[in-house]
Each structure stands twice: as structure tokens, then as C-alpha cells.
Amino acid sequence: MQVNIESSWKEVLKDEFEKPYFSNLIEFVKNEYATNTCFPPGKKIFSSFDHCAFDKVEVVILGQDPYHGPGQANGLCFSVSDGVPMPPSLQNIFREIQTDLGKQFPLTGNLERWANQGVLLLNAVLTVRQAEANSHQGKGWELFTDAVIRKISEEKKDVVFLLWGGAAKKKGASVDKNRHLVLESGHPSPLSANKGHWFGNKHFSRTNEFLASKGKKQIDW
Questions:
Q1: Full DSSP string of 144-202
Q2: What 3-state DSSP class applies to 141?
């Protein structure tokens, strides 16, 4: 099946694209986008891959579901397009970076700048219907993104996996911890963060320390 995705991923995931579940998934997504308002825009469904080629992946952040409000989702987990108000989880991510690294709070919540440095911002499910959270769960996206995680775990080395919240920890449970660094904490959403499960995790400085220890370039968060 022809899938419009960055060429290195097209090669790495070619077996997935030929599986029956993926054909069914694409048919479902095409029908949903034809009959409902869905996010992100069709050309941005695979943005996380297009901004971060397979051989460039240094960090993986796992999200769950795209934002389902108009103009928010841009294909990168936790990220919003330029000019869109930052959702609470994203604000808490930047607050932790501010405390952890002393960086100023950014003007935009667009995380393309992270993706372009080798941070794969991967949602478990890549599409959603407007105003209906989790509406595209269980349609095949999870199988696809599990395969992505498996390929990174098996074929790369010294990648940092940031697993925030129960769903991300469960999804990343198969990552080989002998080959990669896995950092876990609560979710940055206010519900979790305000209970003390997010702030102070120092995931951003710890990621950079690990990358530096492996002779890799640190991420400019």
C-alpha cells in the first residue's frame, strides 16, 4: 500500500503497510475524514515521522490521542500549531523545563523544533473526530504505533523513551531497557501534575545528560 510518509519510515514499516489491519485502518480514516471533521489535517497525520526520520530518532515521547479542538492538532503529540493557545498539559511541560533547565517559557506551543532535532512525538492514535476524544481508538492505529516502538527498540540503540502517565508506561513496556533509557513519571495534565506526579521529574536534563554521555548532541528544549 502506498502511504505518504517520510522515506526512511516507509522502508522500516513496509511490512506493516501490507497487513490487512492497516488497509482497514486507512479505509476507516478516509471515510471518517470524508464524512466528519477530523484532526489533524490529512496531510499532517504522519507529521511526527516526516519531521523526524528513523535514523535521526534520539528521543521518543508517547502521547495518547490528538487534540480534538479546531486548529489544535498538528500531528505531533502535545504540540499545537503557532498562534494556538497552549493546552494545560503543554503549559506544565514548559513549566518543568523552566525549573529543570532554567529556560524561558516559549512563545509558541509548536514542537516542530523538537521533532527536527530527533524527538519523535508519537501519539498512540494518530487521528480523532472533532470534539470526540478517543473516537478513533481501537481501529488499528495502536497496532501501527506499537510496531513503530518495536522497530525503534529492536533496531536502534541508546534512545531515550519518555513515558508520562499510565497509558504511555503501558505502551512503552516492551522497550528493551538494556538498549535504551526509559524515564517514567506521571502525566503533565493538571490532574496528575498537581498531585506531585509530574513536577520535578527532571526528564529534560536527564535526557540531555544521557545523550551527552553517549557522545550525542543534546536537545535544545
A1: HHHHHHHHHHHH--S-EEEEESHHHHHHTTTS-TTTSEEEEE--SSHHHHTTTSSTT--
A2: helix
Q: Is position 100 annotated as part of the catalytic site?
A: no
- Nearest partner of 63 among 40, 82, 97, judged by Cα: 40
Closest CA to 60 of 193, 214, 211: 211
Which among 15, 65, 82, 146 is annotated as catalytic?
65
Residue 152 has pLDDT above 90, yes or no: yes
What's the grid cell of residue 158? 541508546
Q: Which three cell numbers stand for residue 15?
A: 511490512
Contacts of 188 (CB under 8 A, 6+ apart): 78, 89, 90, 92, 93, 96, 164, 198
Q: Strand (E) positions, the chain?
A: 38-39, 59-63, 119-123, 128-129, 160-164, 181-185
CB atoms within 10 A of CB 151: 17
Please report, as a single letter, which amino acid is at residue 19.
K
Q: How many other C-beta atoms can be found within 10 angstroms of the C-beta atom of residue 75?
A: 25
Question: What are 111-132's pLDDT values in tens digits?
Answer: 999 999 999 999 999 999 999 9
Q: What is the pLDDT of residues 63-119, one digit of tens each?
A: 999 999 999 999 999 999 999 999 999 999 999 999 999 999 999 999 999 999 999
